[in-house]
Amino acid sequence: MSEVLIEAVGLSTGYAPGEPALRGVTFAANAGQIVAVLGPNGGGKTTLMRALLGELPPFEGRVDVHGEIAYVPQTEQARLDFPVSALDVALMGAYRRTPWWKRLGRAEHDRALQALDRVGLRERAKDRFGTLSGGQRQRVLIARALVQDAPILLLDEPFSGVDRASEATILGLLGQLRAQGHALLICTHDIEQGRGFDRVLGVHGEQTFFGPGAALDAAALERTYGSEIVTLGEGAAIAVQCHHHDHEHDQHG
Amino acid sequence: MTELVTDPLLRRALLEVVILGLACGPLGVWVLHERRAFAAESLSHAMLPGLVVASLAGAPLLLGAVGGIVLAAVLVAVAARDARVGGDTAVAVVVTALFGLGVVLALRPDVPARLAEILFGDPLGATAGDIAVAALLCGAVLVALALGGRSLRLAAFDPQAAPSLGTKPGRVGIALLVVLAITIAAAAQGLGSLLLVALLLAPAAAAIRASDRLGTQLRLAAALGAGCAVVGLEVSRSLDVAAGPAIALAACVAYVVVALVRPGERGPGLRRAPIDGLTGSR
Asked: Is residue A3 one of the residues assigned to a domain?
């Protein structure tokens, strides 16, 4: 059995002591595994990410992390008006490894350019980050994670607002990283896509499911999405987001 | 113009304001990118009671500035602990209270009338000691900005991911405020508590408007800060007007000129222009 890189046991966490936003989470991601994190808006996906990153304390239970974590946030979290190029952003992945008194050298620049090449954006290296499309920005943030070369990757809705070409590129990359032995946790709204990954973790204020995608049945989806789930037959389902964010009155899945 | 160099009084004033301009410009760029313009404005106003007390006691203004800023920081921290009040309200209340206290102290009939000097600065009164202290503090500020450049970038660009890349944005924010406080204290003598914010923010805003590259913005802001200081001092000498306000006006004119040459750009994906930082909105 492959090595466990990140796991939570009985984890409860949140933003105010005594008021957990997420309860009872127990899961493990092994090297060479992709775990999809499913749940409605406000269900606790980002809260889980922040707890795994150590930004939120566990009120109960524990988080065990075996290795460095690279975090790819939702692209709109980054400041689009900040004057950095795609190459500058990719280079940020080398900050942690480079002592604060040393300048980033040729090796780091080459590594950043290679990462941009892997996400298909080498020719846009000099372009300002804020001028790129949503899908391209997401790929640049993934390039930054590639430069960081951490064994564990957390990706918060990497397919949100991404065009089909970028989605295909990102999926191909994630498959390569999986094959190289990285453990990946991916928050997504796409139930069918999530089912295609190695494991699925459902959250809705608490853990609703953890197991292989094939075992994600209607009852588990009902627990995860409540009345927001619509079953289409032949196992397919879509989550209908009706609240929390007006701009997300969409269908996913 | 040559009198700025040949006249010993003007030469000292020139040295003082050029040193301040060189440090204020790049610091201002980070202050605007980190959306801390309100903090800069507030800190510079809140130190007034400290400046007045130092003036009354015959102590160095730098000491009074540091005391005033520390007092303001403590009061803001205490007021902001009440969640119903919030940080912005706490800053607004504390700063206006301290500013009012400073004016009351300075206008007492039994104290020397130095309010204008404290509010608007007096670079012509700079001694060799003042210049040495300003050079030391401003040099330290520039070194701190250079060494902390990566953390400042991460905190400003992507605070969500910054911790996983080795930077805690909260600590960066506090460090920037400390550097800001040091600069404000160093600039109080030359530019006064009301006007120094102009040399801090206007050249920086102009540089941000003029260039899309961070490195260029930092270098240009330093050059503009020093240049505005020279131009302001020369205007002050030739038109016989107060030096501090002339420098502040020169900095603001530089911004207006750049804004006219390079009108604001808002691309489809740009949520907010950096210049919004001048309003202090976050």
From this structure: no
